[in-house]
C-alpha cells in the first residue's frame, strides 16, 4: 500500500475535480478504509495477516462500507455508502501501482484467491515521493482557493 | 439495503459476514512456515517460503541474514553469487538492523533456509508514522463534519464543505 498521506492526496485531488462538497470527508475515509480495517490488525498481530488479506478486497470493503452506512440517518445512507465505496475503489486503483517480491492483492476474493499484481513502484516509494505529493496538493489547494476568491469577487461586483 | 427495516439484523449479519470472510481468508491464504517445514523436511525440501509478516533485519553477515519473524529469529543462509537484492541496485550491506523487509527463502535439507530474494524497506516505519498522523487528521475532520443525533450519525448542517455542494448528502 502507499502510505495514507498519499491515499488522502489522491482522494483530495479527485475531490477538487468532482467537488464532492460536505461528503468529501466520507470519500477520504473510503480512500483509507481498506488499510484502516486491515493494517492495524496485522501490524500488531502479524499472525493475522492471512485473515486480513481477504478483507483488503472489494468484497470485504463493500461489506465494511455497507456496515458504516447503516449507522447514518436513513436518508444519508445511500450517498454515504457510495462515497465510501468509490473512495475505496480509488484506494485499490492506487494500490495497483505497487509491485511486490511475491504475491499481490486478492481483488477477486472470495471467488478466487489468485493474487494480482500489475504494479511498477515499491510500496515505500510513495513515502520517498511524499514531498512532491504534498507540493502538488498544496499547489492545487492554492490555485482552487485563488479561483474561488476570484469568483466571489466577480460575483460581488456584478 | 439502506432502509431502517431489520436494521439491527442487517448490522449483525454484515458483522458475521466480515468475520466469515476473515476466517475463509485465513484458511485460503495460510502461508508455509519454517516450523512446518521442520516437521516434515523431506516433503518440503525445495519449497519457497515467501511470507514473513512484519519481518525485520536483526543482523547481516557475509554468510547469513538474521531476521525477526512471528516464529522468532531466523537465519537465512546467503547462497554463492546471490544478487537478488531489491530495490534494484541495492546491496545486502545496505540492510541495517531494525529495517523492515520483504523476503523469500527456499527450504533446504537437512533443515535450513536459503535466501532467494530480499528487499529492504527502511522507510516503512515513517510510512506507518505518517499514516497514523493522517488518520488523526481525518478523525478531527470527521468530528467536525459528522455528529451523533437521535441514535444515528448525520452530517452537521454547519460542517465543512456545506457551502460547496450542500445537497449531495
What does this structure look like?
The complex is a heterodimer of chains A (158) and B (169). Chain A starts with a helix and ends with a helix. Chain A is built from 8 helices and no strands. Chain A is an all-alpha fold and 158 residues long. Chain A is globular and about 60 Å long. Chain A has one domain (4-157). With 169 residues, chain B is of the alpha+beta class. In chain B, the strands form 2 sheets. In chain B, strands 1, 2, 3, 4, 5, 6 and 7 form a 7-stranded mixed sheet that branches. The two termini of chain B are 17 Å apart. At the A-B interface, helix 1, helix 2, helix 3, helix 4 and helix 5 of A face helix 1, strand 6, strand 7, helix 4 and strand 9 of B.
Task: Give me some keywords for this one.
heterodimer; A: about 160 residues; mainly alpha; about 70% helix; B: about 170 residues; alpha+beta; OB fold (Dihydrolipoamide Acetyltransferase, E2P); seven-stranded mixed sheet; two-stranded antiparallel ribbon; 4 helices; 9 strands; about 30% helix
Which word captures the global form of chain A?
globular
Fraction in beta strands of chain A: under 5%
Structural class of chain A: mainly alpha
User: What gross morphology of chain B would you assign?
Assistant: elongated
Q: Tell me the number of strands of chain B.
A: 9
The CATH class of the largest domain in chain B, by name, is Mainly Beta
Q: Termini distance of chain B?
A: 17 Å
Give the helices and strands of chain B as they follow along the chain: HHHEEEEEEEHEE
Determine the fraction of residues in helical runs of chain A and give it as a percent range.
55-70%
Measured by DSSP, the beta-strand proportion of chain B falls in: 25-35%
Sketch the major β-sheet of chain B. 7 strands, mixed
Profile the largest sheet of chain A: none
Query: CATH homologous superfamily of the largest domain in chain B - what is it?
Result: Nucleic acid-binding proteins
* Uncertain residue segments of chain B: none
CATH topology of the largest domain in chain B: OB fold (Dihydrolipoamide Acetyltransferase, E2P)
What is the CA–CA distance across the termini of chain A? 49 Å
Pair of chains with the largest interface and how many residues each contributes: A-B, 65 and 69 residues
Oligomer: heterodimer
Q: Can you tell me the number of structural domains of chain A?
A: 1
Relative helix content of chain B? 25-40%
Radius of gyration of chain A: 18 Å
